[in-house]
Every structure is written in C-alpha cells, then in structure tokens.
C-alpha cells in the first residue's frame, strides 16, 4: 500500500520549565499532541513516532517563561496519500451510490457511484448489497472486503479520502493478488513451452 | 407487488433521481429554476397538513441523501443552510420527514469531509433544543438523533474528536440563566453518549465537563450568606427536637434544612443535575463499568474540586460513587487521598491539607466503610504525625507547621465520630497510642485546632479512657484564637443541603445526631434521645451530668470549667454546620 512513509527527523522541542523533572515524558507529550493530525512540516499525518534524546544539553529561550529546547532524533511514521496513489482499506458500508471504506482504522474513504467503473454492478443478495464484476464473477466487493482504491483527493482536516475504482488494478485485494499470481504462473508456462 | 410494478417503481425512482441531480448540476452552471423549486419544497415543511407535499418532501430528502456527491457548498448554499438549520422538534407530526432528514445528514457527513462539522453541529443543536417532556414519537426521534451520531462515528472514525468540542461548547454556561431549562435534558443526552460506544473515545472528558458545570453552579450559590446567618444554630436545636420527637430509625432520612426553600433557580438546577449524575453512576455500576469510570471521576475531582474550598455539594459525587461500591471504590478513594497527602514532592501545602480534610470528613461520614479500614487509615495518619513530631524543626511559629496542624485536626474530627468504634476494639485502640505523644508535643496542636472539635474530642477521650496520662490535657480556656481561626474548619462532607441529593445520600451518611459517642450509656436500643443530652432543653439531665462530671473533673480536668458549661454550650456542641472561618486560608 502506498501512502505510508517512514521519515527520520531531527527536531527541536521546546518544553516548559515546570516539566523539567521528567523531560522524556514532556517530549512524548508534545509529540503525542501531534498524532493523527496533518502536519505541514512533516508533510503527512503523524501515525507513530520513536524519539531518542540526542544530548542532555538544552538551549534556554530568553523570554517570559524560560522554555528550554531539547534536540530529539525521531523516526516518524507518516501517512500521506497523494492523488493517484493507491491505498487499501476495509469496506464498512455499501449502498448503490457509494462504498464507504476505512483506511488504517482512522481515515474514512468514500467512493461514489460515478467513480466505480462500469465493470461493477450493484447486486442485492440475502439482504446485503455488494458490487460484483460483470466479467469476473468471483470478483465481488462485499462488507468486510479489503479494497484497494486510488486516491483522488485527501481532506487533511478530517482525514477524508475521496477514492476511485476506475483504474483496472483497483478492487478486492485478495482477488487482485490471486490474479497477478496466476498471470505469473501462466507467464512461466508460456516461457517453458517456448523454450521447449 | 408484481415484477412489472417493481420495475415501474424502479424506473420512476431512477427518473426522479436523474431529474433532481440534473436540477442540482444545472444550478452550478447558472440555470437555477429547477433548483429554486427544490428549495421551495424545503420551506413547505411549515405546512404539515398537505399530505402530498409532505410525501414529496420525503422523497426529495431520500433522493438527496443518495446524491450528496452532487451537492456543492457554494452553489447549493441555500439548500444546505435550510437542511442544517432545521429543528426537528418543530415538525413533530411529520416524523417520517424528519427521519429522512436525519438520513440525509448522515450521508452528508460521511460522504464529504467538508460538511462533517456542520452536520455534527446540527445534530448537537437539536439535542440541546430538546423539549423537557417527550412523548413516544419524540423519544423515538431522539433515539434516531443518537443513532445518527453513532452511524457517523462508525463510518468516520475521527468524528468523535470533532464532536467533542462541539458538545462541550454547547453546554449552556452558568451565567446564561435564560437557558437553564435546557441544561438538564442536554446533560442527560451527554451522559447517554458517555455510556455508548462513542463514549469509549471521550467519555472521561464528558464526565469532567459535566462535573465542571456542577462546580460552577455550586460556586455560584452564595453559601456564605446562608451559613453566616446565626439562625442556623437555632435551627440546629429545632432539628434536634424534631429528631427526638419522631420515631426515627437507623435508615430514616434526617430532615435537612434545605436550600430550595427560597426556590433558588441555581440550587434547583444543581439539585437536578446531581441526581442525574447519580443515576448515571448507578447505571455504570449496574453495567459493571463503575471501576473505570471511577478513575476518571477521581482525576477530575482532584483537578477541579479538591482545591476549590467553597464547594458544598459537588464533592458528594465522589461520596455517592464510593457508596455504590464500598469495597473497591470506597477504599480506593480514601487510599488515593492519603497518597496525595503523603506525596510531599509533587503536591503543595494547600493540596495536601485539603486532601487530609477530605479524607477525615469522608472517613467520618461514610457509613459503608468498615471500622477496620477506618482504623487502619487513622493509624497511618497518627504515625505520620508522630514521625513529624520526631523530625520537625524547632520553629515555634504555627504557620510553619500548617500541614501538621491540619492533620491533627483531621484526626481529632475523625475520632469525634468514630471514637466508640475505635475504643471498642483493643487492636484498633493500640494502633493509635502514638496520638498521646503527638498531642502533648511542644507544637501543641490542641491549642491550634478548632476549639469545638478539640473540646468534643477531649470530652469523648476522657469518657472513653483513651489516654493514660490525662493531666497533660488541662484545658483552661477555649478561646477561638487567631491560630485556630486561620486554620479554619474545612469539613467537606458536612450534610448536604440540597433536598433531592440528600435523599439519595442519607442512607449511607452518618449524621452527627446518630453517632454513639464515647460518653453515652451502653443502652444500644435507646440511641437517639440519649445522645442529644448535650444540647437538650431538659435542664434536669444537664444538672445531673454536671454533678457526675464534677467529681471526676477534679482528677482529670479536661472538660472546661463549670462556669463555662452554660455560656459556652454552643461552642462545646459538635456543630452540625461548621462554618468555615471568616478569614479563609490565608497565610498568616
């Protein structure tokens, strides 16, 4: 899945003097306050971090409250779905007009009917709706299916992805992977026959 | 329905969808005729009689919820404003229309990030404007609003974090007296949300926000006006007479002079909210969640109530929570307060003294705590005092030892209530032997602590034979010295002054009138009339007691001199309402 990246960053974190008793806790607090929010500096949504204090020396800021700055080396897990990239998530709701997906457990993605390719037709079976492919009967998108979709836009404020199922390599992840494996096998077979 | 009919319905349905979508898109390109027709339809909501129109509206809303992707913020602003501005309670008869509207709101919120906060705002403002009395239809509507919030949270996992600030800010403030009648139903909704799946995300914040509102109301009531009124003491006598005359049993509630007599709006609201919160805690207990809720509750209590000395009611939240689960929460509350007191590194003086005051008042008043637990807590406090006495510096100034004095006062207060139960068990009695050395230490806590507490304690101690060497406790006078006035009498769990709240509390609350003191006779049956000997109008009894005391007084004169008996009767009685000192805890 694209959109996830691991960054290393050297940060300077300013801490209030009252927190000087337990600096590491204060650092974690500061970084935690950035979690699940889009950050321009990092260029992505911070999902997880790993911080190590580089040196015990800190720089004190002159001012009303003498905040002190601590240098921290961090590794950051960032989520940054750029347009045209692919992400994967679980389907939580299917209706004739839209498919609702949750990506990585926190980001909501929606694919509206105009962005679902013609191949898929909405069917109701046993009271449950699903999208089934016209050409490949086994390829079905149901509740709970892991779906790969292409990102059209990403709303940073609410972490909302507008997705699309138009490209050919989008759809049920399991089915797509099986298909690519089969393609691999048939390729090998072809080559063998050619040689032989 | 035959297949053909179904097809027809589907076709016309599709045609409608196409038509409406066309109207919306044409508005974007400037052709607003059809769009305006749709908007007009939304306004028809005011005329509930025309069934056709209502049906049309319902269909429109249903189709809109399937076409939210076509709704644009800019071009369809009027339509969207109409949708977000609807108050569902105004349109009671057209319930189905409202259901359709709620579905539309859910669709809007989940399909596009742009509308999420507007949708949540609309739902919350409808929760706020909920009428007080609900009939069946409206109850169903309310549950649908809650269901809408849950659906949105399910499809958009981050919705609760956006919802929370909206909920918190929508709670009317204390100064907004016109909207008081909205507060109770709104808080009920908040607490219902806390109990739900959304509550897992932000339940503790909701509890804190409501507690904060209770605190604001509590502080808003002018308790000082009521308590400085001298008639309060006279009222106490009347209270005693009532108690004596009536056939009161252990479990019966005591007639508490209630505040609501003036019909004070603020105190009424506080009363109702407290009862609501209590009910919520009860339901948490019933569903087994009280333990985790209690942790949050205590944290909010420490942050909000512990250091706000003037609160009289809000602290009873903790009392009630403890009474629901004595073995777990009841014990935890006391232990945590003790920890705060013992932790001198992280807590300042004021916090520690308040914690001790709360601890003492709680242990004294909680009927549900076993005597063994109270004794063990008492032992810890006494040991701490003894340690302090050993290691303290020679500074004679009382202000240096404020924490010590407040702990001493706490111990004395606690023993006034529990002396009998402590003395009856030799093991408990032996646990507090260091107390004697503490009280006779050069720091002389008996002079600094509140005289009424000290005298009651000494009287009981003498009667119960607590101390071996008693001539150390010769007490010539009982001036309310500067020192003791500065120390003040902070007993947070004094009887609750709100009617409905008190009714729920009184079963587990130890009223002073019911305490079997160390100087009572051993007739367990006749508890009440005998106890109140001290302040009784029956002068004969008093004289008899005085004679009895006289003989013993010569040997161990801890009771004040005879001449003081009548004049200072008021001071000697354990005040039912202990007034906080006029100079509040300023540093000397």
From TrEMBL, chain A:
Q: Which Pfam families match?
A: SHS2_Rpb7-N
Supply the alphabetized keyword list. Answer: DNA-directed RNA polymerase, Nucleus, Transcription
Could you tell me which InterPro entries the record lists for this protein? RNA_pol_Rpb7-like_N_sf, Rpb7-like, Rpb7-like_N
Q: One GO CC annotation, please?
A: RNA polymerase I complex
Could you provide one GO biological process annotation from this protein's UniProt record?
Answer: DNA-templated transcription initiation
Q: Where in the cell is it found?
A: Nucleus, Nucleolus
- What is the similarity comment for this entry? Belongs to the eukaryotic RPA43 RNA polymerase subunit family.
Protein name according to UniProt: DNA-directed RNA polymerase subunit
